[in-house]
Amino acid sequence: MTAGAGQSVPAAASRADAVPLDQRLRITEIFHSIQGEADAVGWPTVFVRLTGCPLRCTWCDTTYSFHGGQWHSIDEILAEVGRHGARHVCVTGGEPLSQKRCLVLLRRLCDAGYDVSLETSGALDVAAVDGRVRKVMDLKAPDSGEFKRNRWSNLAHLRAHDQVKFVLAGRADYEWARATVEEHQLAQTCQVLFSPVHASLKPRALAEWILADRLPVRMQLQLHKLLWGDEPGH
Ligand code: SF4
Protein backbone atom coordinates (compact mmCIF):
# COMPACT_ATOMS: atom_id res chain seq x y z
CA MET A 1 0.00 0.00 0.00
CA THR A 2 1.16 3.50 -0.54
CA ALA A 3 0.66 6.84 1.08
CA GLY A 4 1.07 10.28 0.20
CA ALA A 5 5.66 15.01 3.56
CA GLY A 6 5.68 15.95 6.47
CA GLN A 7 7.42 14.89 9.57
CA SER A 8 7.93 11.20 9.69
CA VAL A 9 7.31 9.91 13.16
CA PRO A 10 8.73 6.41 13.22
CA ALA A 11 7.24 4.07 15.69
CA ALA A 12 9.01 5.32 18.78
CA ALA A 13 10.21 3.35 21.71
CA SER A 14 7.09 1.97 23.23
CA ARG A 15 5.77 0.88 26.58
CA ALA A 16 3.54 -1.53 24.68
CA ASP A 17 5.43 -4.57 25.93
CA ALA A 18 3.39 -4.13 29.09
CA VAL A 19 0.12 -4.03 27.13
CA PRO A 20 -1.88 -7.25 26.60
CA LEU A 21 -1.42 -8.79 23.15
CA ASP A 22 -5.05 -8.20 22.23
CA GLN A 23 -4.62 -4.41 22.59
CA ARG A 24 -1.53 -3.76 20.51
CA LEU A 25 -0.42 -3.58 16.91
CA ARG A 26 2.90 -3.81 15.11
CA ILE A 27 3.57 -0.45 13.47
CA THR A 28 6.19 0.49 10.84
CA GLU A 29 5.60 4.24 10.97
CA ILE A 30 3.13 6.98 11.81
CA PHE A 31 3.57 10.22 9.89
CA HIS A 32 1.83 13.39 8.76
CA SER A 33 1.76 13.99 5.02
CA ILE A 34 -0.42 14.88 2.05
CA GLN A 35 -2.73 12.12 0.87
CA GLY A 36 -1.38 11.19 -2.54
CA GLU A 37 -4.25 9.19 -4.00
CA ALA A 38 -7.87 8.07 -3.85
CA ASP A 39 -10.78 10.38 -3.11
CA ALA A 40 -9.07 12.18 -0.21
CA VAL A 41 -6.14 13.17 -2.42
CA GLY A 42 -4.55 16.44 -1.34
CA TRP A 43 -5.80 16.42 2.27
CA PRO A 44 -3.30 16.68 5.11
CA THR A 45 -3.50 13.19 6.57
CA VAL A 46 -1.97 11.13 9.32
CA PHE A 47 -0.80 7.76 7.98
CA VAL A 48 -0.63 4.75 10.26
CA ARG A 49 1.42 2.09 8.48
CA LEU A 50 0.99 -1.37 9.96
CA THR A 51 3.79 -3.91 9.58
CA GLY A 52 3.42 -7.06 7.50
CA CYS A 53 1.88 -8.23 4.24
CA PRO A 54 1.21 -11.77 2.95
CA LEU A 55 1.45 -10.63 -0.68
CA ARG A 56 4.50 -9.79 -2.81
CA CYS A 57 3.34 -7.58 -5.68
CA THR A 58 6.03 -7.21 -8.33
CA TRP A 59 5.79 -3.39 -8.24
CA CYS A 60 5.40 -2.96 -4.48
CA ASP A 61 6.87 0.34 -3.25
CA THR A 62 6.52 -0.32 0.48
CA THR A 63 8.60 -3.46 0.91
CA TYR A 64 10.18 -1.86 4.00
CA SER A 65 6.88 -2.50 5.77
CA PHE A 66 7.09 -6.30 5.37
CA HIS A 67 9.25 -6.81 8.47
CA GLY A 68 10.38 -5.01 11.59
CA GLY A 69 8.22 -2.36 13.17
CA GLN A 70 7.46 -1.95 16.85
CA TRP A 71 4.55 -2.88 19.05
CA HIS A 72 2.29 -0.04 20.13
CA SER A 73 -0.86 -0.09 22.14
CA ILE A 74 -3.96 1.23 20.44
CA ASP A 75 -4.07 4.04 23.02
CA GLU A 76 -0.52 5.04 22.05
CA ILE A 77 -1.44 5.06 18.36
CA LEU A 78 -4.49 7.25 19.04
CA ALA A 79 -2.33 9.66 21.05
CA GLU A 80 0.29 9.90 18.28
CA VAL A 81 -2.37 10.45 15.61
CA GLY A 82 -3.95 13.19 17.72
CA ARG A 83 -0.63 14.99 18.11
CA HIS A 84 -0.68 15.94 14.39
CA GLY A 85 -4.02 17.73 14.44
CA ALA A 86 -5.32 16.36 11.12
CA ARG A 87 -8.92 15.39 10.38
CA HIS A 88 -8.02 12.61 7.95
CA VAL A 89 -6.37 9.36 8.99
CA CYS A 90 -5.29 6.63 6.57
CA VAL A 91 -4.56 3.15 7.89
CA THR A 92 -2.22 1.45 5.44
CA GLY A 93 0.60 -1.09 5.19
CA GLY A 94 1.74 -3.57 4.17
CA GLU A 95 -1.63 -5.16 4.42
CA PRO A 96 -3.16 -3.68 7.58
CA LEU A 97 -5.85 -6.35 7.82
CA SER A 98 -3.15 -9.01 8.28
CA GLN A 99 -3.23 -7.88 11.94
CA LYS A 100 -6.72 -8.67 13.23
CA ARG A 101 -6.68 -5.86 15.79
CA CYS A 102 -6.60 -3.42 12.90
CA LEU A 103 -10.40 -3.68 13.04
CA VAL A 104 -10.33 -2.32 16.61
CA LEU A 105 -8.03 0.53 15.62
CA LEU A 106 -10.34 1.49 12.75
CA ARG A 107 -13.36 1.55 15.05
CA ARG A 108 -11.53 3.58 17.71
CA LEU A 109 -10.39 6.14 15.09
CA CYS A 110 -13.97 6.51 13.83
CA ASP A 111 -15.29 6.85 17.39
CA ALA A 112 -12.74 9.63 17.94
CA GLY A 113 -14.30 11.56 15.03
CA TYR A 114 -11.65 11.17 12.35
CA ASP A 115 -12.35 10.78 8.66
CA VAL A 116 -10.81 7.32 8.26
CA SER A 117 -9.71 5.43 5.17
CA LEU A 118 -8.23 1.96 4.87
CA GLU A 119 -5.86 0.90 2.09
CA THR A 120 -6.14 -2.84 1.62
CA SER A 121 -4.89 -5.37 -0.94
CA GLY A 122 -8.24 -7.00 -1.67
CA ALA A 123 -6.85 -10.38 -0.62
CA LEU A 124 -8.25 -10.40 2.93
CA ASP A 125 -11.84 -10.31 4.13
CA VAL A 126 -13.17 -6.76 4.55
CA ALA A 127 -16.62 -7.80 5.84
CA ALA A 128 -15.92 -6.76 9.45
CA VAL A 129 -14.43 -3.34 8.65
CA ASP A 130 -16.40 -0.56 10.38
CA GLY A 131 -18.96 0.85 7.95
CA ARG A 132 -17.77 4.42 8.63
CA VAL A 133 -14.36 3.63 7.14
CA ARG A 134 -13.80 4.40 3.46
CA LYS A 135 -12.19 1.30 2.03
CA VAL A 136 -9.69 1.76 -0.80
CA MET A 137 -9.42 -1.80 -2.02
CA ASP A 138 -7.06 -3.08 -4.70
CA LEU A 139 -7.96 -5.63 -7.30
CA LYS A 140 -4.65 -7.11 -8.34
CA ALA A 141 -4.06 -7.20 -12.09
CA PRO A 142 -2.10 -10.06 -13.70
CA ASP A 143 1.26 -8.26 -13.92
CA SER A 144 1.22 -7.71 -10.15
CA GLY A 145 1.99 -11.41 -9.77
CA GLU A 146 -0.77 -11.64 -7.14
CA PHE A 147 -3.83 -11.91 -9.35
CA LYS A 148 -4.86 -15.21 -7.76
CA ARG A 149 -5.10 -13.55 -4.35
CA ASN A 150 -8.09 -11.41 -5.30
CA ARG A 151 -10.92 -12.19 -2.89
CA TRP A 152 -13.89 -11.65 -5.13
CA SER A 153 -16.41 -12.03 -2.30
CA ASN A 154 -15.15 -8.66 -0.99
CA LEU A 155 -17.03 -6.91 -3.78
CA ALA A 156 -20.28 -7.59 -1.92
CA HIS A 157 -19.03 -5.45 0.99
CA LEU A 158 -18.29 -2.30 -0.99
CA ARG A 159 -20.40 0.83 -0.39
CA ALA A 160 -20.75 4.02 -2.38
CA HIS A 161 -18.04 5.79 -0.37
CA ASP A 162 -15.54 2.98 -1.03
CA GLN A 163 -13.10 2.75 -3.90
CA VAL A 164 -11.70 -0.09 -5.97
CA LYS A 165 -8.18 0.58 -7.19
CA PHE A 166 -6.47 -1.01 -10.19
CA VAL A 167 -2.71 -0.49 -10.45
CA LEU A 168 -1.78 -1.21 -14.06
CA ALA A 169 1.63 -2.11 -15.49
CA GLY A 170 0.72 -2.23 -19.19
CA ARG A 171 -1.89 -2.79 -21.85
CA ALA A 172 -2.68 -6.38 -20.83
CA ASP A 173 -3.42 -5.24 -17.27
CA TYR A 174 -5.57 -2.43 -18.64
CA GLU A 175 -7.65 -4.76 -20.78
CA TRP A 176 -8.17 -7.09 -17.84
CA ALA A 177 -9.23 -4.16 -15.63
CA ARG A 178 -11.62 -2.85 -18.27
CA ALA A 179 -13.28 -6.26 -18.57
CA THR A 180 -13.47 -6.62 -14.77
CA VAL A 181 -15.15 -3.24 -14.33
CA GLU A 182 -17.71 -4.22 -16.95
CA GLU A 183 -18.29 -7.76 -15.70
CA HIS A 184 -18.89 -6.69 -12.09
CA GLN A 185 -20.55 -3.36 -12.90
CA LEU A 186 -18.11 -1.81 -10.44
CA ALA A 187 -18.79 1.79 -11.43
CA GLN A 188 -22.39 1.33 -10.28
CA THR A 189 -21.21 0.29 -6.82
CA CYS A 190 -18.39 2.65 -5.91
CA GLN A 191 -15.64 4.80 -7.38
CA VAL A 192 -13.22 2.98 -9.65
CA LEU A 193 -9.61 4.20 -9.72
CA PHE A 194 -7.03 3.39 -12.41
CA SER A 195 -3.34 4.13 -11.73
CA PRO A 196 -0.23 3.42 -13.82
CA VAL A 197 2.69 1.59 -12.26
CA HIS A 198 5.37 4.23 -11.77
CA ALA A 199 8.11 3.87 -14.46
CA SER A 200 6.24 1.01 -16.18
CA LEU A 201 3.19 2.52 -17.87
CA LYS A 202 3.23 6.06 -19.21
CA PRO A 203 0.41 8.07 -17.58
CA ARG A 204 -0.46 9.66 -20.90
CA ALA A 205 -0.99 6.28 -22.55
CA LEU A 206 -3.35 5.22 -19.76
CA ALA A 207 -5.26 8.50 -20.04
CA GLU A 208 -5.70 8.03 -23.79
CA TRP A 209 -6.93 4.45 -23.39
CA ILE A 210 -9.50 5.51 -20.78
CA LEU A 211 -10.75 8.31 -23.02
CA ALA A 212 -10.88 6.14 -26.15
CA ASP A 213 -12.91 3.51 -24.31
CA ARG A 214 -15.07 6.07 -22.49
CA LEU A 215 -14.56 4.23 -19.24
CA PRO A 216 -16.45 5.42 -16.13
CA VAL A 217 -13.27 5.39 -14.06
CA ARG A 218 -11.15 7.98 -12.35
CA MET A 219 -7.49 8.11 -13.33
CA GLN A 220 -5.00 9.10 -10.68
CA LEU A 221 -1.30 9.68 -10.33
CA GLN A 222 0.42 9.40 -6.98
CA LEU A 223 0.80 12.99 -5.80
CA HIS A 224 3.22 12.04 -3.03
CA LYS A 225 5.60 10.53 -5.60
CA LEU A 226 5.63 13.77 -7.56
CA LEU A 227 6.42 15.59 -4.32
CA TRP A 228 8.80 13.22 -2.53
CA GLY A 229 9.68 10.24 -4.76
CA ASP A 230 9.96 6.90 -3.00
CA GLU A 231 11.22 8.17 0.37
CA PRO A 232 9.62 6.28 3.25
CA GLY A 233 7.54 8.44 5.55
CA HIS A 234 5.76 10.36 2.79
S1 SF4 B 1 -0.38 -5.75 -1.14
FE1 SF4 B 1 1.22 -5.70 -2.65
S2 SF4 B 1 1.62 -3.47 -2.94
FE2 SF4 B 1 0.50 -3.69 -1.00
S3 SF4 B 1 2.12 -3.85 0.60
FE3 SF4 B 1 1.56 -5.96 -0.01
S4 SF4 B 1 3.06 -6.51 -1.60
FE4 SF4 B 1 3.11 -4.27 -1.37
Automatic annotation (TrEMBL):
Radical SAM core domain ranges (all copies): 40-230
Listed cofactors: [4Fe-4S] cluster; Mg(2+); S-adenosyl-L-methionine
Recorded superkingdom: Bacteria
Annotated residues for binding of Mg(2+): T62
This enzyme's EC code(s): 4.3.99.3
Cofactor binding remark: Binds 1 [4Fe-4S] cluster. The cluster is coordinated with 3 cysteines and an exchangeable S-adenosyl-L-methionine. Binds 1 S-adenosyl-L-methionine per subunit.
InterPro entries: 7-CO-7-deazaguanine_synth-like, Aldolase_TIM, rSAM, rSAM_QueE_gams, rSAM_sf
Residues forming coiled coils: none
Gene3D superfamilies: Aldolase class I (3.20.20.70)
UniProt-recorded Gene Ontology molecular function terms: 4 iron, 4 sulfur cluster binding; carbon-nitrogen lyase activity; magnesium ion binding; S-adenosyl-L-methionine binding
Record-listed substrate binding positions: I34, Q35, G36, R49, T92
Protein residues bound to [4Fe-4S] cluster: C53, C57, C60
Catalytic activity: 6-carboxy-5,6,7,8-tetrahydropterin + H(+) = 7-carboxy-7-carbaguanine + NH4(+)
Key words of the record: 4Fe-4S, Iron, Iron-sulfur, Lyase, Magnesium, Metal-binding, Queuosine biosynthesis, S-adenosyl-L-methionine
PROSITE patterns reported for this sequence: RADICAL_SAM (PS51918)
Pathway terms, separated by semicolons: Purine metabolism; 7-cyano-7-deazaguanine biosynthesis
GO biological process: tRNA queuosine(34) biosynthetic process
EC category name: lyase
SUPFAM superfamilies (alphabetical): Radical SAM enzymes (SSF102114)
Residue numbers binding S-adenosyl-L-methionine: W59, C60, D61, G94
Subunit and partners: Homodimer.
Listed PANTHER family: 7-CARBOXY-7-DEAZAGUANINE SYNTHASE
Job of this protein: Catalyzes the complex heterocyclic radical-mediated conversion of 6-carboxy-5,6,7,8-tetrahydropterin (CPH4) to 7-carboxy-7-deazaguanine (CDG), a step common to the biosynthetic pathways of all 7-deazapurine-containing compounds.
Name the UniProt record assigns to this protein: 7-carboxy-7-deazaguanine synthase
Organism encoding this protein: Tahibacter aquaticus
